Amino acid sequence: MIESFTDQRVLPSKLQHLVLFTHNLEGTSQWYQDIFNVQFSAKNHPDSSAAMRLLKQTMHFYSFGYYHHDLAFAYRPDVKPDQSSMLYYSMIVRTSSGLDILKDNLVKNKIPYNKGRVLASALTDQYSSAIHFKDPINNFWIEILQGESITPRHFRISNNNDLKNINSKSNARPSHAAPESMNGVAAMLKRKWFREMLLLPVTLVGKRTRNKTKDYGVLRNSTCILSSIEQMTFFVMDLSQSTNWLEVMGFQLSRICPAEPHPFIQGHSLRCAYFNLKEHLECVILIEHRNDKGQLVAPSIKDVFHCAFELDGAELKDTFSFFKQKQQLGIKHYYGPVKHNDVAPHGDGESGGNVAIYYYMPDFHHIEFFTEMDNVDTSNIKSH
Ligand SMILES: [Fe+2]
Prior knowledge:
Structural class: alpha+beta
Bound molecules: fe (ii) ion
Number of strands: 17
């Protein structure tokens, strides 16, 4: 049971991790290790994790050296990335030597890169260098920035608590979208006997070779050249509808830009809205994409399994308070709150230790808010 809630409004403070879909998990894993020196922190596969077995999904988690995971890839047979959920995502290298190592790695792997930022409207002043290139396996555009994440100087949270027009444009629900709510499942996954029952057949036939709760750890002295996820983009059908949703969830609209040319498709245009979090300047960009006839291009949700934001407060009770505060506003969640380990009463058997709750944005982009992810300073970290 939760012993206490906070009455203060709990806000998301920063963008922290991304989980992307791939149809080539092994190839993608190798490429990211080769290019960025990311370190493995967990493998969750259907035979070792109850939730993954339910979703028929396999995940590889990577750490940049502090959090249990910063980036993860998910293989799910029925979801193939189509580069229509996001335009690109950005990550930070903190040092110029890290950027030099990256450029060497790109050359060695025959990956061409462009100098500068992807979007003409994106800020450049706070970064000393920017390059972008394509992940050759999934065709995701990746932007690498050298610098530090910036805290917005004037963060004023909107008092917008009215969820308007969320269903004003009923986009067709993507065929692979999960059910409206998995909360019945969440409650069951918190019971050890249920997780063991789900995994019993593969345990009995000896197929289950790994207890995934023992296969992770965040290493000190990481050689990863990345320090953090810096920016995430989402294609949306309606900027005002999604802006409204983000404001209610605690994001601050920084600016909406005039239409600009699509950087990769001639004749297409983009209109971007940039959002701040309390400790993270312009970390989210919503984008309306129009084709050469001026028609809106519908987004998919096939590239991104979910995108996660760390909450202020950093304790289990803060995730539960956030959940309660949003529930009072009538905002439906999809899964959680749960803790991603196997410790009762909130553990769902997953990895990372984060106390997480999941929602869908208006176009069904899947969003996580969390506290308490395991990190190198957490006493329960296990080494490889
Ligand atoms: Fe997550």
